[in-house]
Specification:
The complex is a heterodimer of chains A (378) and B (324).
Chain A (H helix, E strand, L loop, with lengths): L34 H26 L13 H8 L7 E3 L5 H7 L3 H9 L8 H4 L10 H15 L14 E6 L6 H12 L4 E7 L2 E2 L2 E2 L11 H5 L3 E5 L3 H16 L5 E6 L18 H8 L3 H12 L4 H23 L6 H4 L9 H27 L1
Parallel strand pairs in A: 1-2, 2-3, 3-7, 6-7
Antiparallel strand pairs in A: 4-5
Chain B lengths: L1 E4 H15 L3 E5 L15 H5 L4 E3 L4 H13 L3 E5 L10 H8 L2 H4 L9 E6 L14 H5 L5 E4 L3 H13 L4 E6 L6 E4 L12 E4 L4 E5 L3 H14 L4 E5 L2 E3 L3 H11 L2 E8 L4 H13 L8 E5 L10 H4 L3 H13 L1
Parallel strand pairs in B: 2-3, 2-4, 4-5, 5-7, 6-7, 10-11, 10-13, 13-14
Antiparallel strand pairs in B: 1-8, 6-12, 9-11
Helix pairs in contact in B: 1-7, 3-4, 8-12, 9-10
Classes of the chains: A alpha/beta (378), B alpha/beta (324).
Chain lengths: 378, 324
């Protein structure tokens, strides 16, 4: 693989679009899409960012319990998400809002999770996007096992692009310290599973910097597990797309796992409960603001004349309308019923749980009767 | 009818499960060529291939975590944890992922996964090889927990666990692996989550599961010599509990003694005592009493015979129950 396992001392970073919006040549990778495709990614990223802004506002207004911002990571998520085919499957953390968008998950479901309505209302199997996983790194094993299942289904290396499938396991820099992630690397490598390990190194695991997780660039860890690792500019949607496309193709064709380290930055707080001013410098943020993933695509489209203001205005208008609709739908979501939760525990309900449910229904009903009685008295 | 040891009965059950459904896969350490350290999977990799009988890397969380992924892909993984004390590295995957995926997806995703765990002491092993961690799992909503006590149940219950759309933690009493019984492979098995009266009696009810069922039967035989008629119930299902059989017995005898190897504090016996008291309060002649391991880490094997409940400890508790 042209990205190499990085055995040398020089740290490689695959970049195809500079922060100023200029196309950059790379020896090993190129972006195959046309400008219409790039405009599509721009729209994806703007809408993902608008979703993030609206969700953050909803949290601040008390409408969501929590929100995990994806601000600054739009290129890593849209670039990789758009590299997937319909038959592929993604296993996200709780921050992959841009990937969810690319997979066709209704963004309302992301809000319903953080509003405490449910734990992810989308149909994972239908969209090829697993439920968000909060336990750090646990999903990388699920992704690996799912990939082992694809291989057992005979859907790797058939040569039929409509059939061959692969998995992306998403995780962050902090997760690379988890046992599960390292075990996932070993299982994937040992069974040559069709998987791409996609690490968004956003530099921060809540308050702990990457230096607390690793003494070497993360992508170089892959060499120790026996598969290639590549570091890509995570704020460059074209490079992320190119690198992920190649890694997925490699997996689908039976050549096993790849580790992608998307080098990016968490522009916001870890979640709405976090206060990054306590542990990082404003300068850092300013430095990364110059590498903004959305701005550089806009600069590119502007510079090349592929899009003009009417395009950008239309996208902005769409984003604003999207936010208005999303907000209204969020506030209009019906409250979940405690009584229903009893039905979700088992495929085959147990007598004891059914009994608890019935008793609770009866208990609740006893209040309703009192209320009615009180009401009748007035 | 075939005479089988429990280990062979489990093997035969797994073989039938593999034959019945091509989506059934086995995963665990040393389960392939070696056939497992207890030979429960002997010959299965040879007959079903490395794709279905998977020798896993030495990582318990990895075994369960990848099985979750395979289950999401439509497979029915049967994972072997080599020894009870080694299940803890997989604890997060079991209680946070396996147990909750059906719930989190509001029933959209099933988790038809079995975790086989040889458990309990009495084999003179080094530490971490003799533990009884069943209460942790029985306490966890979303899991079902069962234990077989004899070759017939071993054969049928394992197949039923594999066929279950809910995750099942399957505890195998390793010290009973070599006990034999006639297994009728054409019989109709009883339901997986049902308790069973294995010895009817009228004076005191003993409730046990897994390795302690035999201990209770031996105790009942000894008590019979003294003119006491003990009823023995094999719980079989630890979660959910089949209270109907136990309550019926408790109402008849008025005296219940629970028996397990696990430490008594917050063990299965505690839940049984509470539930029996709730349901049979006016029938009880004595409080529900518990025999179990002491509240110690499992001790060195030279003293395990004293640590583990045995015939004398069971009968001593029967005497106490009758003294009320």
């Amino acid at each position: 693989m042209s990205g190499g396992s990085g055995t040398g001392t020089e740290i490689e970073l695959v970049q195809l679009l500079s922060p100023e919006g200029e196309r950059v040549d790379h020896q090993g990778y190129s972006f195959s899409g046309d400008d219409e495709t790039v405009k599509g990614y721009y729209r994806d990223m703007v809408l993902t960012r608008r979703l993030d802004t609206e969700a953050t506002a909803l949290q601040r207004q008390g409408e969501l319990g929590l929100w995990a911002s994806s601000l600054g990571q739009e290129a890593a998520q849209v670039g990789s998400g758009r590299a997937m085919l319909a038959q592929d499957y993604a296993f996200p953390t709780y921050r992959e809002h841009g990937v969810a968008w690319c997979r066709g998950v209704d963004p309302l479901h992301l809000l319903s999770l953080f509003r405490g309505i449910d734990m992810g209302g989308w149909d994972s199997a239908a969209v090829g996007f697993a439920l968000y996983t909060i336990v750090i790194g646990a999903q990388t094993l699920h992704a690996t096992g799912y990939a082992m299942g694809i291989e057992r289904d005979g859907l790797v290396g058939t040569g039929d692009p409509a059939r061959d499938a692969a998995v992306i396991g998403y995780f962050g820099d902090g997760a690379t310290s988890q046992g599960d992630v390292n075990e996932a690397f070993i299982f994937a490598s040992s069974y040559n599973a069709p998987i791409v390990f996609f690490c968004q190194n956003n530099q921060w695991a809540i308050s702990e910097p990457i230096e607390r997780q690793s003494r070497i660039p993360l992508y170089r860890r892959a060499a120790g597990f026996g598969f290639p690792g590549v570091r890509v500019d995570g704020n460059d949607v074209l490079a992320v797309h190119a690198v992920t496309t190649e890694a997925l193709e490699r997996a689908r064709s039976g050549n096993g796992p790849t580790f992608i380290e998307a080098y990016t930055y968490r522009m916001g707080a870890h979640t709405t409960s976090d206060d990054p001013t306590k542990y990082r410098l404003a300068d850092d943020l300013e430095h990364w603001r110059l590498k903004d993933p959305v701005a550089r695509v806009r600069a590119y489209l502007n510079r090349t004349g592929a899009a003009d203001d009417s395009f950008f205005d239309a996208i902005q208008a769409e984003a604003d309308e999207f936010a208005v609709q999303l907000r209204a739908r969020c506030l209009g979501m019906p409250e979940p019923l405690m009584l229903d939760a009893f039905d979700w525990v088992y495929a085959e309900q147990t007598p004891y749980l059914a009994e608890q449910q019935a008793r609770y229904a009866e208990y609740k009903q006893s209040f309703a009767t009192e209320d009615e009685a009180v009401g009748a008295g007035h | 009818m075939t005479t089988l040891t429990m280990a062979k009965a489990l093997n035969a059950g797994l073989r039938r499960a593999l034959e019945a459904d091509p989506k059934v896969v086995l995963a665990g350490q040393d389960i392939g060529k070696l056939g497992g350290v207890f030979r429960v999977t002997e010959g299965l990799q040879k007959d079903f291939g490395e794709h279905r009988v998977i020798d896993s890397p030495l990582a318990e969380s990895g075994i369960i975590g990848t099985a979750v992924g395979m289950a999401l892909r439509g497979y029915r993984p049967v994972c072997e944890i080599q020894f009870d004390g080694f299940v803890y590295p997989a604890f997060d995957q079991i209680v946070n992922q396996v147990a909750k995926l059906h719930f989190r997806s509001r029933g959209r995703q099933t988790m038809p996964l079995v975790v086989r765990i040889p458990f309990g002491g009495g084999i003179g092993a080094v530490e971490h090889h003799s533990e009884s961690p069943e209460a942790y799992f029985s306490h966890t909503p979303g899991l079902k927990v069962v234990s077989c006590s004899n070759p017939v149940d071993a054969y049928w219950m394992l197949q039923q666990a594999v066929a279950s759309d809910d995750p099942v933690i399957f505890f195998e009493p390793k010290r009973r692996y070599h006990e034999r019984a006639e297994v009728d492979e054409s019989a109709t098995p009883m339901p997986l989550h049902a308790a069973r009266v294995v010895r009817p009696g009228t004076d005191v009810t003993l409730v046990a599961y897994g390795p302690m069922v035999k201990t209770c039967l031996d105790s009942a035989a000894a008590a019979a010599d003294e003119g006491r008629d003990l009823e023995v119930i094999d719980l079989r299902s630890l979660s959910p509990l089949d209270l109907s059989v136990i309550a019926e017995s408790a109402q008849k005898t008025g005296r219940v003694v629970t028996v397990h190897e696990a430490p008594v504090n917050l063990g299965l016996g505690a839940e049984l005592a509470a539930r029996i008291t709730e349901q049979c309060f006016y029938s009880l002649e004595a409080p529900v009493l518990r025999v179990g391991g002491f509240d110690l880490p499992y001790p060195p094997s030279r003293v395990e015979e004293e640590y583990l409940p045995d015939l004398d400890r069971v009968l001593d508790m029967v005497d106490r129950s009758l003294a009320y």
